[in-house]
Specification:
241 residues, alpha/beta, Rossmann fold, five-stranded parallel beta sheet, 9 helices, 5 strands, 10% strand, globular, 7-cyano-7-deazaguanine synthase, ligase, queuosine biosynthesis
Length: 241
């Protein structure tokens, strides 16, 4: 590591638009990216792991897949890990609360910090953003600060690792615009929580994705089962907000 070079980062990459954009962004910055790490926790949309692998191959970096399926199958009540139906509608709707996987980010980030420490890396990067704050408590700035404080204590005198969340105060539209600026192949990212053959276009993450890419003026060649549902849903949400 040289002056002005923070050293390479380990990027937590789900294969979604946010984390893939983060990986592309950091790979173009000083320090770059050492590897991507993806977690298989038994999510119904685990096909996202394949999209993370594609990103790693595109960037020419290693891809680590950590198996948390035994933990995931024991977590009941989340639409992402059991048979609870994934709701359609706006991402900010309280109905999206059924997609909360309790303690997901603490589990994943703890594992990522362990991997980074073992590989001599001083940076772990994750792609939380403001759109996540409403539903997911472990995506909020307070969580990021508390997690860093915990790791500083846990690793005191052993190694120093910094959690980087450059999108923490960005909107989804900001991230979509960054994806366009960086030339991220958005069709090579997976967002849909339903995990079917193509993006459904109706679940909260699909609605958020379509709205953001549209508002950012980014061409989206992704195939959706329903490409137009988001327009009416966003209009209804804005009218009721």
């Amino acid at each position: 590591m040289t002056r002005g070079d923070p050293g390479p980062a380990l990027v937590v990459c789900s294969g979604g638009l946010d984390s893939v954009t983060l990986a592309h962004r950091l790979s173009a910055e000083p320090g770059g990216v050492a590897a991507l790490v993806t977690f298989d926790y038994g999510q119904r949309h685990r096909k996202e792991v394949d999209f993370a692998a594609r990103c790693a191959k595109r960037l020419g970096v290693a891809h680590e897949v950590v198996d948390l399926t035994d933990v995931g199958r024991r977590i009941a009540g989340s639409a992402l890990t059991d048979r609870t139906q994934v709701p359609d509608g706006h991402y900010s709707s309280r109905t999206m609360a059924v997609t909360v996987v309790p303690n997901r980010n603490p589990l994943m980030l703890s594992a990522a910090f362990a991997l980074a420490g073992g590989q001599g890396l001083g940076r772990v990067a994750a792609a939380m953003h403001t759109g996540d704050h409403v539903i997911y408590p472990d995506c909020r700035p307070a969580f990021v600060d508390a997690f860093q404080a915990m790791e500083d204590t846990a690793l005191d005198g052993v190694v120093a690792i910094r959690l980087e969340t450059p999108f923490i105060h960005w909107s989804k539209t900001d991230i979509a615009a960054e994806a366009g600026r960086l030339g991220v192949p958005v069709a090579e990212t997976w967002s849909c929580y339903k995990g079917e053959a193509v993006h459904c276009g109706r679940c909260g993450t699909c609605v958020e994705r379509l709205e953001a890419l549209h508002d950012a003026g980014v061409v989206d060649p992704t195939v959706y089962a329903d490409r137009d549902f988001w327009r009416g849903e966003v209009a209804r949400w804005k009218a009721g907000s």
